[in-house]
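hey so i finaly got around to running the thing on DUF2256 domain-containing protein from Rhizobium rhizophilum. pasting the sequence first so u can double check i didnt mess up the copy paste, my clipboard has been acting weird all day
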Amino acid sequence: MSKMIRKGDLPQKTCPVCRKPFTWRKKWERDWENVVYCSERCRRSGKTGSADKP
Ligand SMILES: [Zn+2]
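ok and heres what it spat out for the 3d tokens, dont ask me to read them lol
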């Protein structure tokens, strides 16, 4: 009983900046828990810009 990640069944998260769901990528395999944004661009705007706060 081992957990395997199958193609088409990858974990997903929703980017808080662009509000789009993004899928697990190989480059994140070691850091998936810490991945919040879908891309470097969103990461920057998520840290610097706070346009999405209520
Ligand atoms: Zn994004």
